[in-house]
Amino acid sequence: MRILLLFSIFVLIQPSASAQNNSTYSLIIVANTDDVHLTFTQREVRNLFMGRVSKIQLEPVALPPESPIRVLFNTKVVGLTEARIQSYWAQMRFSGRNRPPRELSDVEAVLRFIQQHKNTVAYLPAGIEIPQELTVIYRSN
């Protein structure tokens, strides 16, 4: 009986602790663009990373699927699971309509790449130091 009671308490506490941890992580979307005043809405960022029409032509860059930053981006900004996103991109590739964003190995590689390539965009953890030549176009909370 005690074990059942402890298990019930653990199950009830676990989701709220998990939600609190998720709220402490934030993302920024950073672009290498000449327009330092450029801002995007969440929907515009989602459309950009899902290969849809965008108000400005930017090449999105992503982290690998196993990256916790990517999982956070998928959850907070795109609103889909990695499996759903992979399925979407498989359909796009198969039909020849579009290709998924370029993937780089880690945050440092992504940051170096967008610094060196004009008109690129990427998601990064909010606490990271951003070089002056890059523009933050969206912040998730």
Please give a quick description of this structure.
46% of the residues lie in helices and 16% in strands. It has helices at 2-23, 42-49, 68-78, 82-95, 107-116, and strands at residues 27-32, 59-62, 102-103, 120-125, 135-139.
How many individual helices? 5
Q: What general form does the structure show?
A: globular
Cα-based radius of gyration, to the nearest Å: 18 Å
- What's the SSE pattern? HEHEHHEHEE
- Mean pLDDT score, rounded? 86
Give a written overview of the molecule.
The chain is an alpha/beta fold. The chain is built from five helices and five strands; from the N terminus they run αβαβααβαββ. The model is unreliable at about 5-25 (pLDDT under 50).
Note the main attributes of this structure.
globular; 141 residues; five-stranded mixed sheet; 46% helix; 5 strands
Secondary-structure topology with pairs:
Blueprint: H1 2-23, E1 27-32, H2 42-49, E2 59-62, H3 68-78, H4 82-95, E3 102-103, H5 107-116, E4 120-125, E5 135-139
